[in-house]
Structure formats: C-alpha cells, structure tokens
Design goal:
The complex is a heterodimer of chains A (about 400) and B (about 290). Chain A is mainly alpha-helical and about 400 residues long. In chain A, about 70% of the residues lie in helices and about 0% in strands. In chain A, α2 runs antiparallel to α10 and α7 runs antiparallel to α13. The termini of chain A are close together. Chain B has a domain of about 200 residues. Chain B is about 75% helix and about 5% strand. In chain B, β1 and β2 form a beta hairpin. In chain B, α1 packs across α9, α2 packs across α8 and α2 crosses α9. The chains are: A mainly alpha (about 400), B mainly alpha (about 290).
C-alpha cells in the first residue's frame, strides 16, 4: 500500500501501549458496569425527550438526528471496533431507505399514484404494470425485513468478496467508495423503477397494527429512539462478547489473530454485515422522517459526513459516534441560514483538528478527564494518558498492510 | 469506420482528461502513500483561478496556465506543511483530514466566488475544429491531448532524470535510509505534494473551458482519478497512462452501447473486481519494499 516503510521505531511497539494483562483485577469489571449504565442512561435520556418537548417540529428534527446517530454508530462498529473503514455506508443506508420508501409509496393515496395503483413516477415513465420486485413491498413486514436484510446480504457478499482475499486498509476504503458510486449511479439510471434523480417522494405514513407513525408526532420519535436504543444495546453486547474481543484483536494485529487459528475473514464479514443492518435501519428511519428517499442518500458527501461524525464523537465507541452525529447535526440545525455557509468552514476545520489531535474523538476527552480525576484504572496512571491514546491509534494504522 | 474513429477519439479524449487529473494524484499517492481526497478541490481551485485571471485581469489563456500551476502548487504546499505532514504514519487518517480540507476549500470558494456556474472562454485559436481522416475533431480536445502528453513527459523527466527526482525515488523507497544519507525528506515530500497539486490545478484550468466551473466540481474528479491510479498500479507512471487509456476507452465504448451513467457504473464495478484480484494494480513497478 504505502511505499513508506512503516518503521517499528517510529512509534513504540504495539504491545507497549497495551495494558499489561496482570494489572487488571476488579477495576475493569467495575468500569464495564459503568459502561452499561452509561449506555442505559443515554437510552433513557433520549426516550424521555418527548416528555419535556411538546413541539412537533422539534421532535421531527430530533428524530432525524437520532436516525443519523444510528448510522454513525453502525459505522463505528465496523470502523472503530474492527478497523474496516467503510466509505460506502450510504449503500446500506440507501437500500434501507428505498426499501421502506417503496412500501410507503405504494400506500400513498390514489390521488398521487395515478392509474391502477401505479406510483406517479412510473406513470410518467410509461411503465404499464407494477414491476415484479415492487409487488412484495405491498406488505409492511416484507418492507421492514427487506430494509434490514437487503443491506446485510449485500454487505455479506461484498465482505466475503473483499475479506476472503485479505483486502485491508486503504483498499477496503477504495472498494467501498467505488461500490457507493456504482449503487448511486444505478439508482439514478433506473429511473423507471427508482424515480431517478428525484427518488421516491410523497410517501405515506408507516402503519403497524393500526398505529400510524406521523413523522411529526411523539409516536414516531419513540419509534426512532427505540430503534436507536435497541441497536446501541445490541451493538454493545456484540462488542463485549468474545467476537467483539476478537474483532478488536483483528483491528490491532490481523496476522497474530490469524496465527492463533481464528477465521479472520468470518469475523470481519460479521462486523461488516451487522453494521450494514444497523445502517439499513437508520436509512429506513431517515426516509420516514423526511418523507422521501433520494439518491443523495447514497451520495459520496453524505457517506463521508457519517465518517466525520463518527470521528468527531469517537470512532472507537458506539455511543461516542452516536453523540458525535447528533451533536454535529444539532449544531448545524440550530444555526441561522446566514451562518450556515461559515459553518461548513468550521466543520472542516473541526474535523481536521480532531483527526490531528484527537484521533479517538470527543469520547477520549471524557476518558482523559476521568483519568485526570483519578478514577482511572491503574494502567492509565503509569502510562501518561494523553500520549497513550493517539499512539495506540498510530500503531493500529501503520499495521495496515497492502 | 467514421463511428469507430469517432469513438476512438472520444475514448482518447476522456482518457486524456482522466490522465491529466490522475497524474498529480499518482505522484502524491505513489510516492507518499497519502490518499488525497482534496485533490478534486485542487482541480476546482485551478478552474476558478483561471476564471479569475481571465475575467478580472484579462490574461490570455496560455499565460493563465503557467500562473495557475504556481498558485495551486502553493496552496498544495501550504496544505502539506499545515496538515498532511503530521499524518504520514497514519495513511487512513489522511483520507479523513484531506476530506476536511476539501470541505474548507469548497466552502471558501463558494463564499468568495459565489455558488453559480462560471464559464471560462476557450482561446480563439483553439475554438474551431480540425478535419482528421474525415471526422471533425475539436481543436481544443487535441490541445488537451498534446498538453497532457507534454506534462507526462515533463513529469517522467523530473522523476527519472533530475536530482530532485532521484531524491524523491530514494525517499519513496526508504525514507529513513534516505534521511541518513542527508536527504531532507520532509522538504522532498512538501515539494512533491506541491508539484502534484500544481498538476491538479493545471488539469482544472484545462477542463474549465469544456466543463462548467462550480464549487463542487471536484468531487467527481477525485473518485475517477483514484480508480485510475489504483488500476494503474501505485507508483507506476506508465501504469497510470495505460489505465486512464483503458478506463477512458471502456467508458466511451460502453457509453456508446448503453448510456453514460450505466457505463460509468459498469467500469467502476470492473475496477472493484480488479482491485480484489490485483490490489497493487495492473502495472506494478518491481521495487522491493
């Protein structure tokens, strides 16, 4: 990959920044309960928002941020935990969005759909009958399952394709980026079936068991917050499981894990697919909250923005990435129109600063603060916390081999 | 026959623009391992500089080209000194940081020059077309082809036959060893980055008359250029030339059979498959690393 030799003496060897195994008695155990408690507290917090805020417009806005937060959390699962930099998160996000949008489009009242229950854009494109792959989307259950499973299947195939060939690092980034562009172009090109540039607009509301999810209602907000909570907790469970441990090991040193006899590719595919499923859910929620699905969901800028959010919040923490996305979008959303232009400049600069000085994002600030306050596990005090974090990051990145 | 020739020329024309944009990237990625996502923005800067020099100062197009090269090269130098040089040991993070730089450059241009499309005039001497074997070829496209070939030769000469090129090759092969022999490697890297950026700026100046100039024009270029560099093989100038020819030709051919969008999608899909089987690209130089 890079022709610069990554010299082992440029950074301390990888094991110097790892905590010595002997020095972790019960403290990490306690820290791990704290982690669960923090995640639970966050879930309760976002679920409680409608109790305080009674503004339909604001709730819609917050639901949108939560959906994007979920997309960032999904990214951190593959990127931060497993070292798979997926620049094509928009593929899963977009597939989820289109799956649910196809269902909601079919449910739109006949005024909009034109003749014979056909979606309006198909009428304009001279499509006579509903294409066969649109048919099953009459069913709500099918659409929701498709929104989750389609990204999982696509990601599994792509993951199998990449990871079996031991593609790592930069090349994963380039392949996922290329796949994103391909998907985006295909959706734009197949205008007769996807609505082309305009995407799917004028969507109905989702209805499950008689409950209507009006995007400007607390009901919908609860749906989004609930999905985010479930995904976060499932993600947390995954990262705390043995599979999560092996994924982190793969991130730090692929070859060692392989020498131990683990099937590295299988674990990478797992992380990639779970991340895609979560991104699919995020896409579904996003399409419902905006009431349309468009090819821009699969555009390069949005996918790279997700990377930015995850990096700002903390790529190595599901919650950090989520909060990063919510924070950045909240700031962006609360600025006045005139300031929005300058905001892009600030965002770019913020991003560069985070990459340069805070590779683990805002989440590492909290860790550092905790260590300063003396609540740190013993390893941190012996190893100057401020320096340890970026170095660990550096060693992990120079380990990518082409 | 005419159709075949016409298609051949279209392919050559697309390929030459690809090569023009990819050349700077190939130098930067090939020798420094930096994935520069701001490359498209340097192309955009080049296009805007040309527009500015032409509309505000009334400079002739050819004079613009020379100035634009140095302006954008300077911008590249600043970016390298300010950000990129801290990330040489974190290649994945260069993707993120340079994307941030891209956002800033894009927005800065949007704020200062406005979001509307700008137009750069084709110089009058190149506005017509030339009859070649029975088909009319726009002379400006021929001009681009010639300039691209010239720049390629210049780059090749610079890398292979000058002292700077020798230092660059030494640093590329083994930075520590080169430093031990007294080569100022960080200076070599910043000059290389500046040179690559300057080439991107030139590419922007050259495409400005045939494409619309907008703040977000770079995003498309950078992805295309990356595919060219990766397919060609990292650090291989010849590979970059060949792959821009292949990608340009196949895009033109498929576009003729299907349509532009589908052609691009299929070519990219082929690139993905290719990276899977030959991650180092089609033409890898045989430097031990």
């Amino acid at each position: 990959m890079s022709r610069i030799k990554s010299p082992s003496h440029a950074w301390p060897p990888a094991n110097s920044s790892a905590p010595p195994a002997a020095a972790r008695p019960s403290l990490p155990q306690r820290a791990s309960y704290v982690q669960i408690l923090v995640y639970l507290a966050f879930c309760l917090l976002i679920l409680a928002v409608p109790l305080v805020i009674d503004d339909a417009f604001l709730l819609n806005k917050y639901a949108r941020y939560l959906a994007l937060g979920l997309a960032a959390a999904a990214l951190s699962l593959s990127w931060g935990y497993s070292g798979i930099l997926n620049l094509g998160q928009g593929v899963s996000f977009g597939l989820g969005a289109y799956a649910i949008a196809m269902h909601l489009k079919l449910k739109t009242s006949p005024v909009h759909t034109g003749a014979a229950g056909l979606p309006d854009f198909m009428v304009w494109n001279n499509v006579q009958t509903l294409p066969w792959f649109w048919e099953p989307f009459h069913s709500t259950l099918f659409a929701i399952l498709a929104g989750m499973l389609l990204p999982v299947i696509v990601a599994s195939l792509l993951g199998w394709f990449m990871f079996r060939a031991r593609i790592v690092g930069v090349y994963v980034a380039i392949i996922t980026l290329a796949m994103l562009v391909v998907t985006n172009l295909l959706f734009i090109d197949q205008q007769r079936y996807t609505g082309g540039f305009n995407g799917l607009t004028d969507l109905a509301w989702l209805e499950i068991g008689g409950v209507e999810f009006d995007p400007y209602s607390p009901t919908f907000y609860y749906l989004t917050a609930g999905c985010l909570s479930v995904c976060l907790l499932l993600g947390l469970a995954l990262t705390r499981s043995k599979a999560g441990l092996i994924l982190r090991a793969i991130r730090n040193d692929v070859d060692r894990v392989r020498f131990f006899g683990y099937d590295v590719a299988a674990y990478q595919i797992l992380a990639f697919a779970v991340s895609a499923g979560m991104a699919g859910v995020a896409g579904m929620l996003y399409a419902m909250v905006l009431e349309f699905a468009s090819p821009t969901f699969m555009g390069v800028p949005l996918s790279l923005s997700m990377v930015i959010w995850a990096a700002v919040g903390g790529r190595g923490s599901l919650l950090g990435a989520t909060i990063g996305a919510i924070l950045v979008n909240f700031m962006q959303g609360s600025l006045s129109e005139t300031f929005l232009d300058t905001w892009q400049l600030i965002l770019g600069a913020l991003f560069i600063l985070v990459v340069l000085f805070l590779p683990n994002g805002l989440a590492s600030l909290i860790d550092m603060a905790g260590e300063r306050l003396g609540r740190a596990p013993p390893r941190a005090r012996t190893e100057e916390p401020a320096a340890a974090a970026p170095r660990a990051m550096g060693t992990f990145n120079t380990k990518q081999r082409g | 026959m005419d159709i075949v020739l016409g298609q051949l020329f279209t392919g050559l024309s697309i390929g030459s623009i690809l090569l023009l944009v990819a050349l700077g990237l190939a130098i930067i990625y090939g020798s420094m391992g930096v994935i520069n996502l701001a490359h498209g923005e340097f192309v955009m800067l080049g296009a805007y500089s040309t527009w500015l020099l032409q509309s505000a100062f009334g400079l002739p197009f050819l004079a613009c080209l020379v100035l634009v090269f140095f302006m954008v090269a300077f911008a590249g130098w600043v970016v390298e000194r300010g950000v990129v040089r801290f990330l040489y040991y974190r290649p994945l993070d260069t993707i993120l940081a340079t994307w941030g730089i891209g956002i800033i450059l894009q927005q800065a241009v949007r704020l200062s020059a406005g979001a509307e499309l700008r137009y750069v005039q084709t110089p009058e001497a190149l506005a017509g077309s030339i009859d070649l074997l029975g088909i009319a070829i726009p002379s400006y496209r021929l001009f681009i082809l010639a300039v691209t070939a010239g720049l390629l030769l210049l780059t090749w000469f610079l890398v292979q036959h000058t002292e700077f090129g020798m230092k660059l090759r030494a640093v590329t092969q083994n930075r520590e060893m080169a430093s031990c022999y007294g080569i100022n490697s960080s200076r070599v890297f910043s000059l290389t980055f500046a040179f690559g950026s300057g080439l991107a700026g030139l590419a922007g100046a050259l495409v400005a008359p045939i494409k619309s100039v907008a703040p977000d024009m770079g995003t498309n270029f950078v992805v295309d250029a990356f595919m060219v560099v990766v397919v060609g093989g990292v650090g291989s100038l010849l590979g970059t030339v060949a792959s821009s020819g292949i990608l340009g030709g196949s895009t033109a051919g498929l576009a003729f059979l299907l349509n532009d969008t589908l052609a691009k999608a299929l070519v990219f899909l082929a690139v993905v498959v290719l990276i899977r089987f030959r991650p180092r690209g089609l033409f890898v130089d045989r430097v031990r690393r």
